[in-house]
Design goal:
Blueprint (H helix, E strand, L loop, with lengths): L17 H7 L1 H14 L9 H10 L7 H25 L5 H10 L1
Helix pairs in contact: 1-2, 2-4
Length: about 110
């Protein structure tokens, strides 16, 4: 029998969990700061993904950015999750700059 390391495939440091991958991982944090800076927003992230989605919906942004603001967390979570799966199942890793460009394309 052997032990499998439960390390995050995105940062390689912390134990992997959904909340870590999508919120607390250093790659997720960098990506999120990038996203929030696009809206001129600063805020402390909640502990869980469900709380993020709840808080995100209640946050107020300018009317002309409202539609983009509503889909942004879903795009962010999708990009992080697909990158994680690409690393796990395909052994492929995109540089953070490339991930950000994919996000902007969405």
């Amino acid at each position: 029998s052997f032990l499998l390391a439960n390390r995050c495939y995105l940062c390689g440091v912390e134990a992997e969990s959904v909340d870590h991958i999508l919120l607390h991982c250093s790659l997720a944090r960098d990506f999120r700061c990038f996203l929030l800076s696009m809206f001129g927003v600063q805020w402390v992230m909640p502990r869980a993904v469900k709380d993020l989605l709840f808080c995100w919906e209640g946050f107020r942004v300018r009317k002309d950015k409202k539609k983009l603001w509503r889909v942004a967390p879903l795009c962010l979570l999708w990009c992080l999750w697909t990158e994680r799966n690409s690393r796990v199942f395909d052994g492929k890793e995109l540089p953070p700059a490339r991930l950000k460009s994919i996000f902007l394309y969405l």
